[in-house]
Amino acid sequence: MKIRNNLFYSLPLILMATGSQLASAADLEPFAGIDLGTYKTKVKTKKPSTSDDIESRVVAGIHGGYIVNQNHRMTLGLDRKAYKAKDSHDSDDTDVWTGYMQYDYLVPVTQNITWNIGPRLGYEKFDSKSKDFNGLVYGAQTGLEYKTGNWGFGGEVIYLAHDKEVKAKGTSTKVKLDNETQLKLNVNYYF
User: Fold this and answer.
1) Are 80 and 95 in contact (CB under 8 A)?
2) Which fold has domain 2-190?
């Protein structure tokens, strides 16, 4: 686990270092943007095997990165969402922050529309009452973007797997967040 965490924290530094090297040899197009969407996931327990839905809420975030040679998009981003079990009597939401890196291969569909597909790796940090769930998330995304001038408007479907499994206090029951599907709209500005 320690090796995975060290690798996760060193990847942004590696991307930035290689990005500066690529700048001299490649066509780079920097961008920054915002995301807004929703998600669907469940909480699963083992022994007994149960599944509880999490209320779908808003996911909001910021991101930025580079498009390299018009076909490779590298992005660093930060998302915020809130979890709450549907049948929970607790009125408080659990805040979750996710820092992520993603790579997209861009396929031109028309002159202004591109289709993107690629992997995503991130780290989720839960608020203090659920901090045992802090851990890696990984998955893939695909979407379309319409670009006009310096602006891009798009949407993505993202599939994330949660790495962390937690033992419930005072029991042998293991609790895990199920795989998550997100649907996001985004706006990008290209410099």
Assistant:
1) yes
2) Porin (2.40.160)
Task: List pLDDT tens digits, range 110-140.
Answer: 999 999 999 999 999 988 677 788 889 999 9
Domain boundaries, the chain: 2-190
The answer to whether 139 and 160 have CB atoms below 8 angstroms apart is yes
Cross-strand partners of 51: 44
b or e along 1-22 (b: 16 or more beta carbons within 10 Å of the residue's beta carbon)?
eeeeeeeeeeeeeebeeebeeb
Q: Decide: residue 188, CB within 10 A, 0-12 exposed, 13-18 middle, 19+ buried.
A: buried
pTM (predicted TM-score): 0.79
Buried b (16+ CB within 10 A) or exposed e, 144-177: ebeeeeeebebebebebebbbebeeeeeeeebbb
Confidence category of residue 68, pLDDT binned at 50, 70, 90: very high
Upstream peptide bond of 48 is cis (omega within 30 degrees of 0):
yes
Residue from 80, 97, 95 nearest 36 by CA: 80
| Average pLDDT of the chain, as a whole number | 84
Contact 93, 85 (CB under 8 A): no
Q: What is the DSSP letter of 38?
A: E
Mean of pLDDT values over 90-102: 85
d(CA 27, CA 66): 10
